[in-house]
């Protein structure tokens, strides 16, 4: 190949040398066109298009003067100099051919030479010179049309791949976001719980006997997942489809797909399609390998058609010890860790919380007074989706719309691991599990209360070695309901051993303090470990954890309760008393309600990077004593002082610098604590803290600034703009033209004269720099900003530094004081910057390519611009509030995703508590202000093709839109060509229609799903219809046709009096000018009401005279009312779920249940039409007309003859000859007739015989057919019955 | 299911909306109505001029604004008590479409822009035609020209009119009508968008050009030229690229060629002289200032500070002074250093509240008290708290004489917020 190419190039050179000079006068045709079709190349082979084009051009040119030679040669070779450059290029490209870019060429060569030869022979014949041309590249675009097509196709494919970038509001780093929600879905009996159990066992080495509710598991150092099993009810499936990030769709391979699976897929489709993986279980039940393979293939293809070709699937063959085979589950986990999630539109615009657990925090006395009183309930869970804001309205799915009474951030119960640690993988003791509803953790916290549940649930499965003490206790206190504290108290009083001793044996586990599980080297732990070794309990993990937890709990308690000493809640103090000997006994009190921040201080101690933040923010209000104590107790912190010191200092200095913000913020929004009671205020306290510890040498760096700030502060205090701002009063004249600025700076009042002054130091000179004419080179804004930078910010914005030597030094300086993690981060940033730079350069050079057609370029630029904007937006989102303290961040942007929060909602019906079922998913969905209102929603709608019946207008349907599911009454309509919405009685069978119903408003383009009946055992596909929201309005525009019918009473020429259409003159006057029509199609108009006659009769004119027998009708459109019915599916308020929920029933069901016959409108019954025989008069032609008619058309009214005419009278005689002939013919005819009759008879006989024969055959066939049919239905019925049984078993 | 539970359900199906309640009467009347409309929260205003014995209750222009809102929406419920001192407002769905509205005229009337200042997005492109006063009230209300110079660029920055199918928003003065008698006509057109774009306006850039328009109605044409000349005189000290058109209207009906070459249409019966200047920076930021010859001296209507100016102006202001005043006002706006001018602050902040749940940033000059009150309103209605940060501009390193200059140092405020994700739900998708 190399040889071939090189000869080709030699050829080219030769050609260039010989031909071009002569050809330059007669330039080749289409040279530039070819360049357009040359596929895009990378930089290394940049030269190729030119060469190819040139070769093509030369080839064309050599065809001689006959070819259509337009003039583009100069564009390729603008001067003679370019010739040489072209050749140089080709050398360059030759070099590049040795590289990897040479791959695609052989194809070109294959096409090339043959054509070459053909053309050449032709040409050589023409001009008599035979030249050998081997240059294959000259013919890379030999076929214009084909090349054009292929280029077009490539462009089309590229276009298809292009998509408008969707704004992704998820956390930038995985570890900042919430654990991804992995839902396990499938019909009953397919092995969902087994799957969860096996996954949990694999991840945490923990045996869950009964996985219930969301189970959060840490899967790696940066990833967590929440496993959730979806029960087999429609409501739960709907909810899960709305919240799941990844769905593990379990299918019993032995049984095959079941309807639920398809239903769930459809639900997901309408609510944004999360990722789906198929899990095929029960593979061990196949007896033959062949059968197994066949089924696998069948299932795979069915699954792929539902999702996409190549969707991931797993085959689980059999169980061991109630869990799937380890290596198979491991494969699944491998893929779980690699899944990438796409942002889904609804979840990208709405916050939601999948509730891990809840606490009923109603005051017990209130419950005692009235059992059914409205409860205030605290819900706990990770915030997902967008930011959850304090004032937001939420929808508790299955319960209703509520205001959040309170929302606060808590420490992460399943925190990420320490990044400082060198280990790349998780240790065994690191593994984390948080499953409050599965009875894993037995201590639960509310804000200021602790519930300990040492119940029977504690010893599950593997833990028979549990101490007896626990069992004793468990009998006394079972649950952490409202009376638990009493029982707990009792049990705590009764104990023989100290709690700390007992803790070592018991499987107590605290999720709140679970962060503490990190290996802290306190004595307690060591001792407990020793104890363990002595006793030798088999599951070390399980036993070690409680001890640590207790320790941490103690710590956190101390911190929490130190502040206020009013011990109102006895249980807590007892608890902390007995908790830990090392913890101070003074820590006995109950946090007051306002101390939200206390909760936060309990959180993640192990995470040192977070630590500094928290310390700054949350513990700022604690006094110095506490700090001391904290320092003493926490050895780990001591170790890290030098490190945390830097970070703390930096943060503090930053805060100090930021104080100006706080001030303005306070001035505008009032004091922070006033402005929001949801989060603690930190800014106000920050300076005190800053003053209290100044150990770092960096302190001085910031001193100057601080001073200046203080100065300005004092100034502000003196001037008192703060006060003036607090008390801003606008007059009632409502004018925005109020030139009094609030001065954030001192005084900035507009003074005309000051501006008109002249001189060097006048005002005008001051703003000269703001004009393009100014001398603003030296003192730009940039410099000013850079002055403000300090070391701390440099770390943050590492991009300031380029790759030159000086910068390296500075890098070194910078990196000198950094910890490993910081260093790593720093390096990562630097790397990212370099990558960005390279990308930019690369993009630009790509853009610089002249080869692209302009519109394509524009298009790609458009998409690029969109992408760039999206990225800029993302970056801004992350950076703008990222640097602020946690509390202020919560205030500005609400509770961002990944925060573990506690949402208190008051006025939740008591039924919720009574009928709580932990297996049902509980979701709090945030609503935007618009979505709280209700109105008429118009949607595009289509009956699902698998649903068996068409839907009837005004029959209630359960809709699932956004977070909600509710019952409403739909009205179907179709849009006519003129935009009119015409009422439809039923949905079309295979077509879209529109539906309008009364319900909560949702943004257009949201998917909807309709189900006729949620409950009951309904065979077949339960989802009735799907659609998408089009429009919201307060009134509907649906109309229904109405024909008003009247009859003429009197007819003049073109005028007629019509009656019976209206009932009064008033009605007529409303319809004056309306168009009317007779049945025969004569058009007319309503004129005026008549005085006399039947009321409502009117005069009308027509385009022609109408008949008295004509019926006149007026076509009108009446608006159809949409009934305002909205009934949320409050399945969580009923003991037996959806079955307990009372829904409106469709009319047909009511008919059946009440045994009412269907009412019949007698008008609608078809009766035999009785038509009178019509008598028509004889046609009468006037004399004058008759005379004018031609003779042929004249009526011939001959009088009836009395006498016969001559012709009829005369007798005709035949002569002999004639008679003979006549008789002969007669005889012949008779014979023929006879013959024919005989033939006919025979034919009839044969026909009869044949039909008999056929009937006999048919009978035989029918018998076999019947047998076959019967066999078929029998088999079908069996399958159906099996399904039914299965469903019933699961329900 | 028990009957009790059913009862519960019914309670839940009629959730009570949180009402925005204000007891200080007609303060920020329009903005409160607009926010109520946008946040879908009912509004209750009490004590509307309840202690004003002469004219208690809503004024005519306010009633007119309510009528306008009623016409622009579907499902709005407005209840006013007998004395007009209390207003209960339940917002409906914004519609759009073509609306024509007559604004009252008279001594106390407000210019059409008063009605225009806060507008929102409906389901159809909004075409609003307002009849009334267009000029001459720039002390109190912005003029239509000001809105088109200052608000329209903002509209576009927020992504209104970025739709290719629809023309960009526009404000067109079809006919001038100076105060007090008005009779002008303004067309406002606003396309629809699904949602706004978040903005990032922090770079001020450098002022590169100043454009202006001196408008005179029923006044000798030379006076407009005089205004333009004097304004140019001030601006030329800093920038050569200054161009001020003169827009002269002699009488209604007749069309006449203005001095600056602009053809002026007819105008209303009242005389008036006003000027508007717009500075454009290299970053595409437009700052505007306008002022007009006051038609009546009503010193009680404005603050104390205004009063002084009013007294000064009692002597009839010369056109030259008007020009200078406008130029210095513009300089002051530039000095303040915000990326929108002081009067557009509130509008920009409101739009920022409505952006999708992304961060919007803007650099403002010193906050006007109107903006401050608006910020509080936004927090209450939308729950959006802005992050406000004073960004001090260091002036050529002279920290030494900071104290003396403090009054004359411009400090901009960096405002940033996370939008509420307002989506135009009324817009039908196809």
Automatic annotation (TrEMBL), chain A:
Pfam family, one: RIBIOP_C
GO CC annotations, alphabetized: nucleoplasm; small-subunit processome
Chief place of localization: nucleus
Keyword Transmembrane helix: no
Record key words, sorted: ATP-binding, GTP-binding, Hydrolase, Nucleotide-binding, Nucleus, Phosphoprotein, Ribosome biogenesis
Compartment(s) of residence: Nucleus, Nucleolus
Tree of life domain: Eukaryota
Location of the Bms1-type G domain: 178-342
Biased composition (Polar residues): 732-744
InterPro entries recorded: AARP2CN (IPR012948), Bms1/Tsr1 (IPR039761), Bms1_N (IPR037875), BMS1_TSR1_C (IPR007034), G_Bms1/Tsr1_dom (IPR030387), P-loop_NTPase (IPR027417)
GO biological process, one term: ribosomal small subunit biogenesis
Bias (Basic and acidic residues): 607-617, 700-716, 1234-1265, 1273-1283
Catalytic activity: GTP + H2O = GDP + phosphate + H(+)
Name of the protein in question: Bms1-type G domain-containing protein
Organism of derivation: Cyclotella cryptica
TrEMBL record, chain B:
Alphabetical list of InterPro entries matching this protein: RNA3'-term_phos_cycl_insert, RNA3'_phos_cyclase_dom, RNA3'_phos_cyclase_dom_sf, RNA3'_term_phos_cyc, RNA3'_term_phos_cyc_type_2, RNA3'P_cycl/enolpyr_Trfase_a/b, RPTC_insert
Keywords from the UniProt entry: Nucleus, Ribosome biogenesis
GO biological process, alphabetically ordered: ribosome biogenesis
Highest taxon of the lineage: Eukaryota
All residue ranges annotated as the RNA 3'-terminal phosphate cyclase domain in the record: 24-387
One GO location term (cellular component): nucleolus
Compartments, record wording: Nucleus, Nucleolus
Domain RNA 3'-terminal phosphate cyclase insert: 202-334
Major location category of this protein: nucleus
Keyword Nucleus (UniProt): yes
UniProt KW Iron keyword: no
UniProt cross-references to PANTHER family, sorted A to Z: RNA 3' TERMINAL PHOSPHATE CYCLASE, RNA 3'-TERMINAL PHOSPHATE CYCLASE-LIKE PROTEIN
Family recorded in the similarity comment: Belongs to the RNA 3'-terminal cyclase family. Type 2 subfamily.
This protein's name: RNA 3'-terminal phosphate cyclase-like protein
């Amino acid at each position: 190949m190399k040889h071939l190419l090189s000869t080709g190039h030699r050829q080219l050179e030769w050609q260039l040398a010989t031909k071009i000079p002569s050809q330059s006068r007669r330039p080749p045709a289409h040279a530039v066109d070819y360049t357009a079709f040359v596929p895009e190349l990378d930089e290394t082979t940049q030269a190729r298009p030119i060469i190819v084009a040139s070769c093509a051009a030369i080839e064309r040119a050599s065809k001689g003067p006959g070819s259509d030679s337009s003039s583009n040669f100069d564009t390729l070779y603008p001067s003679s100099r370019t010739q040489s450059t072209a050749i140089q290029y080709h050398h360059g490209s030759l070099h590049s051919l040795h590289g990897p870019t040479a791959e695609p060429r052989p194809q070109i060569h294959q096409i090339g030479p043959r054509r070459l030869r053909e053309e050449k022979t032709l040409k050589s014949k023409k001009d008599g010179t035979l030249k050998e041309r081997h240059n294959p590249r000259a013919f890379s675009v030999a076929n214009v049309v084909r090349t054009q097509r292929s280029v077009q196709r490539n462009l089309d494919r590229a276009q298809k791949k292009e998509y408008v970038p969707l704004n992704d509001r998820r956390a930038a780093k995985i570890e900042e976001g919430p654990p991804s929600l992995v839902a396990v879905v499938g019909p009953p009996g397919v092995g969902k719980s087994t799957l969860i159990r096996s996954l949990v066992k694999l991840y945490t080495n923990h045996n869950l006997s009964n996985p219930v509710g969301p189970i959060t598991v840490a899967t790696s150092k940066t990833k967590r997942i929440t496993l959730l099993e979806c029960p087999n009810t429609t409501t739960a499936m709907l909810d899960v489809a709305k919240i799941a990030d990844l769905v593990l769709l379990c299918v019993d391979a032995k049984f095959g797909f079941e309807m639920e699976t398809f239903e769930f897929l459809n639900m997901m489709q309408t609510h944004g399609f999360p990722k789906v993986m198929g899990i095929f279980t029960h593979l061990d039940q196949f007896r033959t390998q062949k059968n197994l393979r066949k089924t696998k293939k069948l299932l795979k293809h069915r699954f792929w058609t539902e999702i996409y070709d190549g969707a991931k699937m797993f085959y689980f063959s059999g169980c061991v010890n109630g869990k799937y085979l380890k290596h198979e589950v491991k494969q699944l986990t491998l893929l779980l860790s690699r899944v990438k999630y796409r942002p889904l539109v609804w979840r990208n615009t709405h916050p939601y919380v999948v509730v891990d657990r809840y606490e009923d925090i109603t005051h017990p006395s209130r419950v005692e007074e009235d059992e059914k009183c409205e409860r205030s309930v605290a819900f706990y869970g990770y915030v997902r989706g967008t930011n959850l804001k304090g004032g937001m309205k939420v929808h508790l799915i299955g319960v209703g719309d509520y205001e959040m009474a309170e929302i606060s951030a808590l420490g992460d119960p399943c925190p990420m691991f320490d990044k400082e640690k060198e280990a790349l993988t998780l240790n065994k003791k690191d593994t984390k599990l948080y499953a409050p509803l599965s009875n894993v953790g037995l201590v639960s916290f509310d804000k200021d209360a602790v519930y300990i549940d040492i119940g029977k649930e504690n010893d599950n499965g593997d833990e028979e070695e549990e101490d007896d003490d626990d069992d004793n206790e468990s009998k006394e206190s079972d649950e952490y309901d409202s009376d638990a504290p009493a029982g707990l108290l009792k049990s705590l009083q009764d104990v023989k051993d100290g709690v700390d001793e007992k803790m070592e044996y018991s499987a107590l586990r605290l999720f709140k303090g679970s962060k503490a599980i990190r290996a802290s080297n306190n004595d307690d732990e060591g001792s407990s470990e020793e104890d363990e070794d002595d006793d030798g309990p088999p599951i070390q993990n399980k036993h070690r954890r409680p001890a640590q937890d207790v320790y941490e709990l103690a710590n956190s308690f101390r911190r929490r309760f130190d502040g206020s000493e009013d011990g109102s809640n006895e249980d807590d103090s007892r608890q902390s008393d007995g908790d830990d000997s090392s913890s101070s006994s003074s820590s006995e009190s109950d946090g007051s309600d306002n101390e939200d921040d206390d909760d936060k201080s309990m959180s993640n101690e192990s995470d040192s990077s977070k630590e500094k933040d928290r310390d700054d923010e949350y513990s700022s209000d604690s006094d110095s004593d506490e700090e001391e104590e904290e320092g003493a107790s926490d050895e780990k912190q001591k170790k890290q002082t030098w490190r945390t010191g830097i970070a703390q200092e930096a943060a503090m200095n930053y805060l100090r610098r930021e104080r100006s913000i706080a001030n303005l913020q306070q001035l505008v929004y009032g004091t922070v604590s006033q402005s929001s009671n949801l989060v603690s205020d930190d800014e106000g306290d920050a300076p005190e803290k800053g003053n209290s510890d100044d150990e770092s040498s960096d302190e001085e760096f910031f001193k100057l600034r601080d001073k200046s700030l203080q100065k300005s502060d004092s100034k502000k205090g003196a001037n008192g703009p703060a006060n003036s701002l607090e008390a801003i009063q606008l007059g009632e004249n409502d004018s925005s033209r109020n030139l009094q600025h609030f001065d954030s700076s001192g005084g900035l009042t507009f003074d005309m004269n000051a501006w008109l002054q002249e001189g060097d130091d006048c005002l005008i000179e001051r703003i000269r720099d703001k004009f393009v004419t100014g001398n603003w080179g030296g003192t730009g804004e940039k410099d000013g900003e850079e002055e403000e930078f300090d070391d701390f910010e440099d770390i943050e914005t590492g991009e300031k530094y380029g790759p030159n030597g000086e910068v390296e030094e500075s890098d070194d300086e910078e990196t000198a004081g950094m910890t490993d993690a910081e260093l790593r981060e720093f390096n990562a940033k630097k790397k990212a910057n370099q990558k960005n730079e390279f990308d930019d350069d690369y993009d630009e050079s790509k853009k610089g390519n002249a080869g692209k057609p302009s519109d394509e370029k524009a298009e790609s630029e458009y998409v690029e611009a969109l992408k760039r904007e999206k990225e800029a937006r993302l970056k801004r989102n992350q950076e703008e509030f990222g640097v602020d303290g946690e509390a202020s961040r919560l205030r500005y942007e609400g509770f961002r995703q990944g925060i573990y929060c506690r949402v208190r909602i008051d006025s939740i019906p008591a039924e919720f508590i009574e009928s709580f079922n932990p297996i049902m998913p509980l979701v709090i969905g945030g609503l935007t202000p618009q979505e709280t209102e209700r109105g008429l929603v118009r949607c595009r709608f289509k009956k699902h093709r698998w649903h068996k019946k068409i839907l009837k207008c005004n029959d209630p349907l359960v809709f699932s839109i956004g977070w909600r599911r509710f019952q409403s009454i739909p009205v179907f309509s179709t849009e006519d060509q003129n935009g009119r919405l015409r009422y439809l009685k039923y949905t079309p069978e295979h077509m879209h229609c529109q539906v309008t119903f009364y319900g909560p408003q949702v943004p257009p383009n949201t998917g909807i799903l309709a189900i006729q009946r949620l409950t009951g055992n309904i065979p077949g596909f339960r989802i009735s219809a799907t659609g998408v929201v089009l429009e919201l309005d307060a009134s509907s525009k649906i109309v229904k046709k109405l024909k008003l019918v009247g009859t003429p009473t009197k007819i003049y020429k073109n005028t007629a009096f019509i009656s019976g259409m209206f009932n009064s003159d008033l009605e007529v006057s409303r319809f004056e000018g309306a168009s009317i029509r007779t049945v025969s199609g004569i058009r007319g108009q309503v004129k005026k009401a008549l005085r006399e006659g039947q009321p409502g009769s009117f005069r009308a004119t027509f385009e022609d005279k109408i008949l008295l027998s004509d019926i006149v009708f007026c076509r009108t459109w009446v608006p159809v009312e949409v009934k305002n019915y909205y009934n949320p599916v409050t399945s969580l308020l009923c003991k037996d779920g959806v079955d307990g929920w009372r829904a409106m029933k469709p009319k047909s069901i009511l008919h059946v249940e009440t045994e009412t016959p269907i009412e019949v409108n007698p008008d609608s019954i078809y009766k035999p039409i009785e038509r009178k025989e019509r008598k028509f008069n004889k046609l009468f032609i006037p004399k004058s007309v008759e005379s004018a008619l031609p003779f042929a058309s004249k009526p011939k009214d001959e009088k009836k003859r009395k006498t016969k005419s001559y012709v009829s009278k005369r007798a005709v005689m035949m002569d002999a000859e004639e008679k003979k002939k006549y008789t002969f013919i007669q005889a012949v005819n008779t014979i023929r007739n006879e013959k024919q009759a005989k033939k006919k008879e025979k034919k009839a006989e044969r026909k009869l015989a044949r039909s008999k024969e056929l009937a006999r055959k048919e009978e035989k066939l029918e018998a076999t057919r019947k047998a076959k049919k019967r066999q078929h239905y029998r088999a079908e019925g069996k399958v159906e019955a099996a399904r039914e049984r299965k469903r019933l078993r699961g329900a | 299911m028990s009957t009790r539970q059913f009862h519960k359900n019914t309670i839940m199906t009629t959730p009570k909306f949180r009402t925005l309640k204000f007891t200080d009467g007609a303060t920020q009347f329009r903005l409160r109505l607009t926010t109520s409309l946008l946040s879908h929260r009912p509004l209750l205003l009490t004590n509307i001029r309840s202690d004003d014995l002469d004219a208690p209750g809503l004024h005519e222009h306010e009633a007119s604004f309510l009528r306008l809102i009623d016409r622009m929406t579907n499902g709005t419920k407005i209840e006013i008590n007998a004395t007009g001192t209390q207003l209960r407002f339940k917002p409906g769905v914004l519609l759009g479409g073509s609306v024509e509205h007559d604004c009252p005229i008279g001594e106390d009337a407000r210019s059409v822009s008063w009605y225009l200042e806060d507008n929102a997005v409906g389901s159809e492109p909004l075409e609003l035609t307002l009849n009334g006063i267009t000029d001459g009230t720039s002390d109190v209300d912005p003029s239509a020209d000001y809105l088109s110079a200052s608000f329209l660029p903002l509209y576009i920055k927020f992504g209104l009119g970025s739709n290719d199918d629809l023309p960009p928003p526009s404000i067109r003065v079809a006919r001038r009508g100076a105060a007090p008698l008005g009779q002008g006509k303004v067309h406002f057109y606003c396309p629809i968008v699904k949602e706004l774009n978040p903005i990032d306006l922090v770079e001020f850039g450098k002022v590169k050009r100043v454009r202006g328009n001196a408008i005179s109605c029923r006044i000798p044409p030379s006076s407009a030229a005089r205004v333009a000349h004097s304004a140019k005189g001030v601006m030329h000290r800093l920038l050569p690229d200054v161009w001020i058109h003169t827009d002269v209207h002699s009488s209604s009906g007749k069309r006449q060629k203005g001095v600056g070459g602009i053809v002026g249409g007819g105008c209303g019966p009242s005389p008036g002289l006003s000027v508007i200047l717009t500075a454009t920076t290299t970053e595409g930021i437009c700052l505007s200032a306008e002022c007009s010859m006051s038609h009546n001296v009503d010193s009680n209507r404005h603050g104390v500070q205004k009063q002084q100016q009013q007294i000064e102006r009692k002597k009839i202001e010369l056109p030259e002074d008007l020009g200078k005043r406008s130029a210095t006002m513009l300089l002051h706006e530039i000095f303040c250093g915000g990326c929108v001018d002081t009067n557009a602050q509130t509008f920009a902040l409101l739009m920022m509240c409505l952006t999708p749940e992304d961060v919007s940033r803007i650099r403002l000059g010193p906050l006007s008290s109107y903006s401050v009150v608006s910020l509080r309103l936004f927090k209450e209605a939308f729950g959006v708290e802005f992050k406000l940060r004073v960004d001090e501009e260091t002036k050529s390193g002279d920290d030494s004489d900071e104290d003396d200059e403090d009054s004359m140092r411009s400090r901009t405020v960096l405002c940033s917020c996370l939008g509420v994700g307002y989506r135009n739900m009324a817009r039908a998708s196809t």
